[in-house]
Write a structure and sequence with these properties.
- This protein is of the alpha/beta class and about 230 residues long.
- Helix content is about 40%, strand content about 20%.
- The protein contains nine helices and nine strands.
- It has helices at about 40-50, 75-80, 90-105, 120-125, 150-160, 160-170, 175-180, 195-205, 215-225, and strands at about 15-20, 20-25, 60-65, 110, 115, 130-135, 135-140, 175, 190.
- The strands form two sheets. The protein has a six-stranded mixed β-sheet with strand order 1-2-3-4-6-9, with helices on both faces.
- Helix 1 (about 40-50) links the parallel strand 2 and strand 3.
- Helix 4 runs parallel beside helix 5.
- Mean pLDDT is about 95; it is low at about 1-5.
Length: about 230
C-alpha cells in the first residue's frame, strides 16, 4: 500500500477560479507539496484546455496551493504496491498536460512559490512570465541521478539560449529567484510572501489590455519563433 496521505475523493486535484479575465489554475495537493500524479495532470490538461477555449479568459495564472508551486512527481504514489491503476497511461497524462499548456493561446503567468523541482519545474517553465520569490528555487536535477529530462529540455530549448539551457541541466543546481532572473527566466523576483499577489497583479494588468491584444501578440511571437 502507499504510505502517502490519500487525497480526498471530494477534493479536486486542480482548481480553477476566474477573476476579471484571469483563469487562476491551481495545483491542489498541498498535503503532498503539489506533487504530481497522472489524475492531477489529466485535470490540469482539462482546466487549461477549457480556459483556452473560454472567450472570457485573457490570461492564465498557474500556481500551487499551500504556498508551494510543485515538488515534482509523487514517487511514493508511482512506486506504490499494488501499482496504481493509472500507471500504464501515466506518460499519456504527462504529455497531455504539456500539450495543453503549449497550445494555450493566452499568456501564462506562473507564481513560483517556494520551489519547482524536476517534473514540477517543467510546468513552471511552461509559463510565459514567471514571478518568483527571492528564496524560491527551481531545480532540474535529473543529471545527478543519471536520467534524461525530456520535457524540461523541450521547454528550455524552445524558450532560452543554449548557454542558459546547459547551465541549468548540466549542473543540476538549485537556482534561486535572483539566479533565475540573471538567466532571463523570471519576469520578476519579489519577497517570498508577495509572489502570489504580484503574479495576480501582473495577470490582471495584462487582462486589462484591449481585448485580444496579448493573445494576438503571443500568437505572432510563436509564429515568428517557428
Amino acid at each position: 500500500m502507499s504510505n502517502s496521505e490519500p487525497d480526498s475523493a471530494d477534493e479536486p486535484l486542480v482548481t480553477r477560479t476566474d477573476r476579471d479575465g484571469v483563469a487562476i489554475i491551481e495545483l491542489n495537493r498541498p498535503q503532498r507539496k503539489n506533487a504530481l500524479i497522472p489524475p492531477m495532470l489529466d485535470e490540469l490538461a482539462a482546466a487549461v484546455g477549457a480556459a483556452s477555449d473560454d472567450a472570457g479568459v485573457c490570461v492564465v495564472l498557474l500556481c500551487g496551493a499551500g504556498g508551494s508551486f510543485c515538488s515534482g512527481l509523487d514517487l511514493t504514489e508511482y512506486n506504490a504496491e499494488p501499482p496504481p491503476a493509472w500507471l500504464p497511461t501515466s506518460a499519456t497524462s504527462v504529455r497531455a498536460a504539456h500539450i495543453a499548456l503549449g497550445a494555450c493561446p493566452h499568456p501564462i503567468v506562473v507564481a513560483l512559490e517556494r520551489y519547482a523541482i524536476n517534473g514540477g519545474a517543467t510546468f513552471a517553465l511552461a509559463g510565459d512570465l514567471i514571478v518568483a520569490g527571492r528564496t524560491s528555487w527551481l531545480q532540474i536535477a535529473e543529471v545527478r541521478i543519471g536520467m534524461n529530462a525530456p520535457m524540461n529540455l523541450a521547454w528550455l530549448v524552445a524558450r532560452y539560449p543554449m548557454s542558459t539551457v546547459l547551465q541549468i541541466v548540466l549542473t543540476g543546481d538549485r537556482l534561486a529567484g535572483p539566479d533565475l532572473h540573471r538567466l532571463g527566466i523570471t519576469y520578476d523576483v519579489v519577497d517570498d510572501d508577495s509572489v502570489r499577489s504580484r503574479a495576480e497583479q501582473l495577470a490582471a494588468s495584462i487582462a486589462a489590455f484591449p481585448l485580444g491584444a496579448a493573445r494576438q501578440l503571443k500568437a505572432s511571437a510563436v509564429r515568428l519563433a517557428e
